[in-house]
Amino acid sequence: MSQGRAAAGEAAKPQDQGWAWMVLLAAVLLQGLTLGFPSCIGVFFTDLQHEFQASNSETSWFPSIMVAVLHGGGPLCSILVKRFGCRFVVMLGGLLSGVGMVSSSFCKSIGQLYFTAGLITGLGSCFSFQAGVTVLGYYFVRWRTLANAMASTGVSLGFTLWPLLSRYLLDEMGWRNTFLIFGGILLNCCVCGAIMRPVQLASGSLLQSAKPAEEPGRRAEGAQLSNGASSPHPQLQQQTRRTACFQMLQKYLAFDIFCQNKGYQIYTIGVTWMMMGFALPHVYLVPYAIQNGVEERRAALLISIIGFINIFIRPLTGLLSGHRVFTGRRIYLFSLAVFLCGLSNFICVISAQFNVLIIYCVILSIAMSGIGALTFQVLMDVVEMDRFSSALGLFTILESITLLIGPPLTGLLVDITSDFHYVFYTSSFFLISAASFMGFSFCALEKKNNKLKEASKAPVDNSSRYQYNEMPTEPQSESQSPPAVMYVTSI
What we know:
The chain contains 19 helices and no strands. By secondary structure, it is an all-alpha fold. The radius of gyration is 24 Å and the shape is globular. The protein starts with a helix and ends in a 35-residue tail after the last helix.
């Protein structure tokens, strides 16, 4: 009887087939609606400045907060996913995103816009996107790598379509009505979430239960807390709380890996520094083009060109980086892409003519495709997969800080100098210096490891602790359930 039920459950399991491809389609739409959305904010930059009489620095806080919260909300999202399941969190994110943009259409000051469009919409986008990526791990086992690559094309579609739609709606009905319509569009994340129903296991249990079973350690911890409440020793109770807090930080923010793993340390610092300049062209390219006489519609088209090229180049870059020639060398390919991204900014400094800016967008898009395709692959190479989720938590928190402060500080520089060229100078400085730091540091680390091997005449037991070391990233077998908590961002 029980064997019959197990067989029936196994037959009904939707992994890698049937409904899984509908979930993949929903994930593509989610990434276009969430990660692609900030690309259109530059279209509204000048109108918001005039509406609120705000400086470049004040106006740039709005997209900075949105992007920083979208990237940095991963740990909170992972806690909600573990507690309520992916489906609920995706729909909650869609609701927050829609409410945030609808509220933004009624804002009377730039400060209110920081809260509604920046914080609320950014947090909603974070929930929808990251929970949507997590659910793919449940629906795909054999084709998981392909599913994630196909889902990432939604980002490029969003980069292509959002600026064009924004420019059209802004010309027809103004920014307030446009934000109101955007609120309705972002509510479609709830529809995508409804498609992502929990996966049925052969045993009949749900992979994404609303209330996951408590772990033995957590039950013991709860027993200790309950005993501590009636214990006459408050110091013991306080120590138990500190231990629980420390375990939570270790789970979601891997400080121990940062201190011990030199490769992870170098890579995290390099990417965090890189993010100070990475987002600047997306925020200031459209206002820079308009200031130099480019028609507003054509200026908005520049961001769409970047997204359109990404649709084709990003998958190719992912396939290229997976070739065995680049095994153990992906960090150098990543550094090269960052370096090229920094060099491309000098094209804008040379000339602001539309034809020249198109060339700039093509080169920038190729470099961005390499960065986007390799960012998390390199992280998987330098960190053991069983600690990847924790390492990603600290990684995204740190990069969100520099994503937050980079555009406003550069905007302040533009306000002081009245020269948009400093945007691209600043971006180039951070990108080129980050690429050089990562490339030379990993090269030195590799040489040091080779010397240690020669001296010991034996393989280093714990090599990942001292060197850049590629970890196996093959998909898990069907008998293994995917990580219960995984928050992923995309560039």
